[in-house]
Specification:
By secondary structure, the chain is of the alpha+beta class. 39% of the residues lie in helices and 20% in strands.
Length: 490
């Protein structure tokens, strides 16, 4: 029986994992084993929020060496991470400046400046990318304005997963699905937009032409002497997660749920007209000529920060307690910029409720209930926006990623969105990463075939909707909150 051992390295904004998959070609069986899991967090340096890339690289190598030490022959390796963040390199391949995290405050106010100078319609028509204050476009504008002395020292710019692949292989690459998150790619050409680079004062030579996932970048040489192929996967974790989403037919919406919630559709064409811009949806690159037409939603970051601040360690108990509270008592717009990286998430949620003349959540459970209800409401709003863009109804919601383990939130999504919800797989980004590698190794023909493999190996949970009888009044309250924020953005 032909067997493949494939390593997927999946890094999120709060954790990372090195996963070993075993693929049985004849039975089309796929199993996962967690080799190493580690924490990832914002690291303060000189008053800025940064990523500790040395530690991340050390943790990745720890997992890879553990597999090698066990005598396992590795067929390939691939890495996916979060989007938009980058590393600057000099001519010797050494880092220039700090590896800033997207939640760093150096970009505060920069997006409004760029929009004022270049025009919202012009930017959206060019790139089709959602206006978010931490997009790479605004990070590089902050660099040009605040640290212009660094620019002459730079030879290359690599996004985080491309940098980690470079550290394994020595090869420079700009993988398309992640490059599309930068708001620097031209939607029509799929290449870096020259006008935007000239506006920033950034030379085109910093970048290679964006490449599609699914090819070999080079080799990692293990301590035992294995020369392991390193594959360029869909290096944006959402791009990988969507590959693993069980999108069987039209009318399916995916929700990749974790630190961020990424909610959207898989589409053969982008949507960058006035309606799409008004909804502030993004058109990120997928594989096989598809687009991820989606919206970035702040997600479980709010809950993670509350748990951190209040030192909550028993999350299942908190969810059970929150589920017993009355629904929709407290509502906030989870996508308000105030929640990107506040000094205190607890205080910011309470302030938002107070400012909108609502009851103010005090207990841990009340704060959690506020977050869950608000997220579910926002998910409903995005479903309606996607229906309007497509001109056809959404019939099913597929929740993937770590957040799909929250059964209460899954049922709440079904109820509020009035949709049948399917939850799973949990390790969606890892599985999408593996799918790209299996396709590159000619073990699986395409995404449709791979999704069939996942359906056979990773069963889903189903939640049927039961909309609350008093839902309409709460929905009107939430619309008032969210629309005021969208009007501010526009």
């Amino acid at each position: 029986m032909t067997e493949r051992n494939i390593v997927a390295i999946d890094l999120g904004a709060s954790s990372g994992r090195v996963m070993l998959a075993t693929w049985q070609a004849e039975s089309r069986g796929l199993t996962l084993k967690e080799i190493h899991r580690f924490v990832n967090r914002l690291t303060p340096v000189d008053g800025h929020d940064t990523w500790d890339l040395e530690t991340l690289e050390r943790e990745i190598l720890h997992g890879l060496v553990a597999i090698d030490s066990a005598g396992i022959r590795i067929d390939s390796i691939g890495i996916d991470t979060w989007g938009v963040d980058y590393v600057l390199l000099d001519s010797e391949g050494q880092r220039v400046g700090l590896p800033y995290a997207y939640r760093d405050h150096r970009t505060d106010g920069v997006m409004a400046q760029v929009i004022n100078q270049l025009g919202r319609e012009n930017l959206y028509r060019k790139t089709g990318i959602q206006f978010l204050p931490f997009n790479t476009l605004y990070q590089l504008k902050a660099l040009a304005d605040q640290q212009p002395e660094l620019i002459p020292q730079v030879e290359h710019l690599l996004l985080i997963p491309d940098y980690l692949h470079y550290r394994l292989t020595g090869s420079l690459n700009h993988e398309y699905t992640n490059a599309s998150t930068t708001q620097l790619l031209n939607l029509e050409t799929g290449d870096w937009d020259q006008e935007l680079l000239e506006y920033l004062g950034i030379p085109r030579s910093w970048f290679t032409k964006p490449s599609q996932p699914g090819h070999q970048l080079g080799h990692w040489t293990s301590p035992s002497g294995q020369k392991v192929p390193v594959i360029s996967v869909a290096t944006h974790d959402t791009g990988s997660a969507v590959i693993a989403a069980p999108l069987k037919a039209s009318g399916c919406v995916y929700l990749s749920s974790g630190t961020w919630s990424l909610m959207g559709i898989e589409s053969p064409q982008p949507f960058n007209d006035a309606r799409a811009m008004a909804a502030n949806v993004t058109n990120e690159g997928g594989i096989n000529g598809t687009y991820r037409v989606l919206k970035n939603i702040m997600g479980l970051w709010l809950l993670q920060r509350v748990c951190q601040e209040l030192q909550i360690t028993d999350l299942p108990a908190l969810i059970l307690e929150a589920a017993e509270l009355p629904a929709f008592t407290y509502l906030v717009n989870p996508n308000d910029d105030r929640f990107i990286n506040p000094m205190s998430m607890v205080d910011e949620i309470r302030k938002a409720c107070h400012e909108h003349q609502q009851p103010v959540p005090q207990s841990q459970a009340e704060l959690a209930r506020c977050i869950f209800d608000s997220l579910a409401m926002f998910y409903r709003q995005v479903v309606l926006e996607l229906e309007d863009l497509q001109g056809k109804p959404v019939r099913r919601l597929n929740i993937v990623g770590g957040g799909c383990q929250n059964e209460f939130l899954n049922q709440l999504c079904a109820d509020v969105c009035d949709l049948t919800v399917f939850a799973g797989p949990v390790e969606a980004s890892t599985l999408g990463n593996l799918g790209c590698q299996l396709m590159a190794l000619n073990e699986v023909s395409d995404v449709k075939s791979y999704r069939s493999v996942l359906a056979d190996n990773f069963p889903l949970c189903c939640y049927l909707p039961n909309k609350p009888s008093d839902f309409a009044q709460h929905w009107r309250r939430f619309q008032a909150l969210s629309h005021s924020h969208e009007e501010f953005l526009l």
